[in-house]
Design a protein that fits this description.
Blueprint: E1 10-15, E2 20-25, E3 32-35, H1 38-59, H2 82-95, H3 99-108, H4 110-123, H5 130-147
Antiparallel strand pairs: 1-2, 2-3
Helix pairs in contact: 2-3, 4-5
């Protein structure tokens, strides 16, 4: 049998409840393996998947296609409340980008948003007067603006295929609660 078992999506994480490492495989959500060592947990789940695949082949069952080899269209339908849609559309207009580009940036760059937030927190002092608070806010805004990078190809403006890195104007904590 082809070594398809190596192409599945494995995860190993610590289980506080079991006091051992828990290994899982995304394509087979009902399978798991516990071991005291990470490497042993990964080896255990990998061997288990290999055995399950052999049994499935013998029984003529359909073998799941690994996520890593599946074809994806790049289209995702998303339902959000109308108020949130309005806020995102306004923000996209303010940023001078398409709504698609803004949403892609927001869901693909949470680490960048947290980084900007960390830098903003590092520049503020715990006890500040009203004047110094306003000054700190202005400094944070300037720093956030410095981190804003939009890489785009002018001839392909507003297309979903261009490469982009957009860091939001707001820090992670300042984003509206409904977003």
């Amino acid at each position: 049998m082809e070594q398809i078992y190596k192409k599945y999506t494995y995860r190993v994480r610590w289980s506080e409840e079991d006091s051992e490492y828990l290994a899982t495989v995304a394509e087979f959500p009902s399978l798991s393996w516990l071991e005291e060592e990470q490497a042993d947990a990964l080896a255990g789940i990998t061997n288990l998947v290999k055995e399950v695949l052999e049994d499935m082949a013998e029984c003529g069952e359909e073998i799941p296609v690994p996520y890593s080899t599946r074809e994806y269209s790049g289209n995702v339908r998303l339902r959000i409340p109308p108020e949130q849609h309005r806020e995102l559309a306004i923000r996209a207009a303010e940023e001078n980008v398409s709504l698609n580009r803004l949403i892609c940036a927001l869901i693909s760059r949470p680490v960048e948003a947290q980084r900007v937030s960390s830098i903003a927190r590092a520049t503020s002092k715990p006890e500040q007067s009203a004047d110094s608070t306003a000054e700190a806010t202005a400094i944070r805004a300037q720093q956030a603006e410095r981190f804003r990078l939009v890489v785009s190809n002018e001839s392909a403006a507003n297309t979903a295929s261009e490469t982009e890195r957009l860091i939001p104007k707001h820090t992670f904590e300042e984003w509206p609660k409904e977003m």
